[in-house]
Amino acid sequence: MPAALIDGKSLAAGIRDELAAEVSELAARGVRPGLAVVLVGQNAASQVYVRNKRSACEKTGIASFAHDLPESASEEELLSLIKLLNEDPAVHGILVQLPLPRQIDEKRVIRSILPEKDVDGFHPVNVGLLSIGDSCLAPCTAAGVVALIDSTGIEIAGARAAIVGRSNIVGKPAAMMLLARNATVTICHSKTREIAEEIGRSDIVVAAVGKPSFIKGEWIKRGAVVIDVGINRMPDRKLAGDVEFHEASKRAAAITPVPGGVGPMTIAMLLKNTVEAARLKIVR
Ligand code: GUN
Which residues lie below 8 Å from residue 174, measured CB to CB, with a gap of 6+? Predict the structure, then answer.
């Protein structure tokens, strides 16, 4: 039987509906969650992502604060903007779209965001909290990956999970989140030996390498859950994931499509983190 498609679009829509209801409740208590999305420069992909993030906020009732700086912006300019946003009580979440132009030190920028407003979950305080299994703002794509896995009904505890890719944005946080859920986690990367065997014994495969067809369909264990984080633009302009979708579908129990799998979930989780950051502000 071919794999079930994991419908990220519909799962994300459900989460957005729940969040819109929460936003209304918060409004009744006089709080409107607000997200500042900062874009520096003209990176084409970043422009699309940022536009989608801003529009998703508006649809959910979250206030969206747009800050666009020129490609030539200095690190000091960006740091002063972040300082203002840190101090602004209407801003509950701050997202600086990556990558940044080369004159700006990404690490310094991430560290300058207040951890309680770091809705990307990239600040070392949040990374640390995630790795000790404490509550925190967790990276959105990784959180989306776990929600997609949960939607299949597979038991994460005790499952073998292979994460392919060790980025700070996806691979490492996804590994930490699955470990916190008691999966047996292996992180694979470009130097991993016998990757086919690693994948072949995994009940859950998370592909986040950024190379089309890197994961061969024949590697997939029968009945596995496959989450494809890759978004690769092919010469024919179509999008493709990191997994050989057609072949993998013949073996997996469930698999995410690209597009329509992980992508919509990243934004849903960003909105969720923003609402959470606003809520924590009230509780404190
Ligand atoms: N660039 C690619 N993915 C992301 C993300 O999740 N957050 C930010 N801020 N930039 C990105």
Answer: 141, 142, 145, 146, 163, 206, 208
